Task: structure prediction
Amino acid sequence: MIIVIQCADKVGLVAIVSGLLASEQMNIISMREHVDTEQNQFFLRLEVDGPADAGMLKQKLSALLAGAFIQVNPLPEKKIIVLVTKEYHCLADILVRNHFKTLGASVQCVIGNYNLMEDICSRFDIPFYTVPHEGKTKEDFEKNILDIIAGYEADYLVLAKYMRILSPGFIEKFPSKIINIHHSFLPAFAGAHPYKKAFERGVKLIGATAHFVTNELDEGPIIAQQIIPVNHSYTAKDMVRAGKEIETAVLAKALNLVLDDRVAIFNNKTIVFE
Amino acid sequence: MIIVIQCADKVGLVAIVSGLLASEQMNIISMREHVDTEQNQFFLRLEVDGPADAGMLKQKLSALLAGAFIQVNPLPEKKIIVLVTKEYHCLADILVRNHFKTLGASVQCVIGNYNLMEDICSRFDIPFYTVPHEGKTKEDFEKNILDIIAGYEADYLVLAKYMRILSPGFIEKFPSKIINIHHSFLPAFAGAHPYKKAFERGVKLIGATAHFVTNELDEGPIIAQQIIPVNHSYTAKDMVRAGKEIETAVLAKALNLVLDDRVAIFNNKTIVFE
Amino acid sequence: MIIVIQCADKVGLVAIVSGLLASEQMNIISMREHVDTEQNQFFLRLEVDGPADAGMLKQKLSALLAGAFIQVNPLPEKKIIVLVTKEYHCLADILVRNHFKTLGASVQCVIGNYNLMEDICSRFDIPFYTVPHEGKTKEDFEKNILDIIAGYEADYLVLAKYMRILSPGFIEKFPSKIINIHHSFLPAFAGAHPYKKAFERGVKLIGATAHFVTNELDEGPIIAQQIIPVNHSYTAKDMVRAGKEIETAVLAKALNLVLDDRVAIFNNKTIVFE
Amino acid sequence: MIIVIQCADKVGLVAIVSGLLASEQMNIISMREHVDTEQNQFFLRLEVDGPADAGMLKQKLSALLAGAFIQVNPLPEKKIIVLVTKEYHCLADILVRNHFKTLGASVQCVIGNYNLMEDICSRFDIPFYTVPHEGKTKEDFEKNILDIIAGYEADYLVLAKYMRILSPGFIEKFPSKIINIHHSFLPAFAGAHPYKKAFERGVKLIGATAHFVTNELDEGPIIAQQIIPVNHSYTAKDMVRAGKEIETAVLAKALNLVLDDRVAIFNNKTIVFE
Result:
């Protein structure tokens, strides 16, 4: 069972929580705590084992910690919907992990603004919806997508190289629930064409960033980042190719963390209990 | 104040400790816990802040947790003695950090089986003792070293590229108190001439390992490891040169962790609360 | 066009090769050279562009460099056969890249000693052959595999987590043509159960190694290696899971290098022109 | 002997150079070539060994390659001047390497706008000049520095955490001869207070960048970059402390590359023959 708690910090919080768990004969398997002393905010993630019921624990914790954010998760599998454009690398990695039950979530469907990824989805028996953006207002386009999403239950939307900018109205419907992979080491090269910019700048490392989506483009809370070395022999095209490897790896890592309830968000930053 | 606790695991340990801290009005700044479920062992590291006295806290914790290893450290600076042979890179790094008060310890003296490092020590006003190993039995040689050590108080002995093998009798005098930097990614290339072996094997990464010294050569608990990429263009000599950079970095990191009370030892392995 | 040359070193080799290329109006796009001065061996890899014919160039180079190993490769796609046991991660990555034509080779078929990977292969329309090893002599088992291989043309055999040890007789049939992924940072933890050994030793990094297979178990020329950090909180099972990520990445990288003619072998080591 | 050549690309350049070297009985130890096909520019670095004289080789190469940039370097030690402000870490590393003759250059003197680094310099017998910037115009301040520099011969100026912005007039006097270490992964967090910005953005990696100084602040050609992982538990101050380690390492690496004639500059980017 995973317990996540977030509230204003004060003396004795750990004593209150661990006291309750002890009295309920719950054993603490792992415990990770963070105090943001500047903002006076307390974060706790526990893996516990024992006889107690999740709902009851949540109720008792809520009574003890008035006003706190409390989540007690009996480890049900989460559900995700994936949005894509034309590239296969992140999507195929997700589909493979989903197929072999190592993703930590089940993929409900995939939505693309082109139909290029339909074939790979069908090979894994995953519903694919083509929603072309051409010839439509952004509002109509996003309404089409929202209608499809409405047909499923989803804990998270994953933008696996989805190359359209979502509108504020869309994003507000899924607060802290949309995960994007950006193909640069943010905040370097935010926006379009990061590899071209990286090539022109002559950087010696390129990166990828997985982050939650907010209404500030590429400015949402960062979940995971990684880099690989490049050199003068790399063309912009070589950088694109090399970058795909870390885009795939970083998105996989971020999903693993989020789906395992290891990521809290506060003040546009993440607390990641790896 | 840093509190380190190690004992057999049972339900309620965190509740007991955090309950005491709360009742003493101590605030938990950071808390890192580990349970070795296989060995049923509990490890806890706390940074706390508040009005309580270290000695009193230790006494109260000892009363609550019979049989536990308990350390309550009011952050006094630690003291170290460094042993060297001919190479400067790790030693100079330690001397520089010591000089600018960023080491987390104060260097009491340096002992070398050659006098090559005497000059750099004198430049930093650190006593240097030359103890030649030649023409002596190992027993006499080590007795000379022990006599010098006896003149100082030291929390740790740091082998900063000290290239003699210490006898079991010597090592037993300093259990879990001798830190060595080995110039390979252990357990690969244990023993002498690791770079030559790495060159001959044609590895694509070389490494360094900081570990506590036990009577099993290069088999003590590992504190930190790091690698760098190499390729076919590296001669064995190039590997030696490249390796010095990570030897320096890994030893510095390991010292930082140990001197900050972040490293526990159990079953020939370390628990490192980074 | 890719030209690879290997021979004893002497003054003027680059002049001879580049002189011929200039006289044939061939432009040098990239040129990587290595001299093993200890062994007096010369290695050259060129990417060239221009009007000349590959066969003619090879003939003229052979006339100029008697006794040299010369390969002039007009970039046809290579062919590979993959051997697996029970794990999907390396195989699925290869199948996905193969499907999207980014592998640099075409997968002819997959052979497994269990049938677990049959389904994923069929989803990508790749022939899969189950060859059980149980109830057979090693000789018979390997003969079954060899008979299947004989039905295809293959430049390389890729052991994508194939967990049986191949016999010397089998290996001799494919000199420098079998590529294996070993789930440790060789030479550490060669042989069986590397993660279990790594866990017991308490290492702080785990690795993976792609290498050519020779008759010395896990002792063949290393193509690529990579590591990831681990810590005390990793169980042996966690290491296995984390290790799969780098196994996949390292094998992908090694295949990319080998299939692009960037890897030469000499004295049980590789020269890798990245 | 190291030969560096840069010119417009055309067929036969390698043949011309290697033909001359062969006729002069010069053996090629290592050869690294790069063609910028987009810009049609050719770069070559050779390490050669043999009876020929450097001056004569340069003359003959110049005759064969009209208009090319040609450097034939008989490996004399280079000379550098270091500028600092208040921090010791990069400077001390340079002083130690200089002292033990592993820097690849000799430090002529150190200039600081504070006197804090005078003591460490005097411990290594290196002249130190304090040039306060306070109460002076930038012009006067820089004139003071230039006067000191004029008293030495220096191949490069190294800004080892020198925290003043140099004027265009100053920089123009040392084209491609000033090397700076910037405490972020450029182009992220250019300008002042990069760690504060990194902390506020919540990045998961922080970096350092060594680059040549041009009149565009933090926009000069990048020589080397490196990163280290950070997490939510890092305060801005922790990032500063962790960052010092990579600042030191990256500047050391960049100096090693530049002082070994491995770095060419073209179109505000570097070609680095590692």
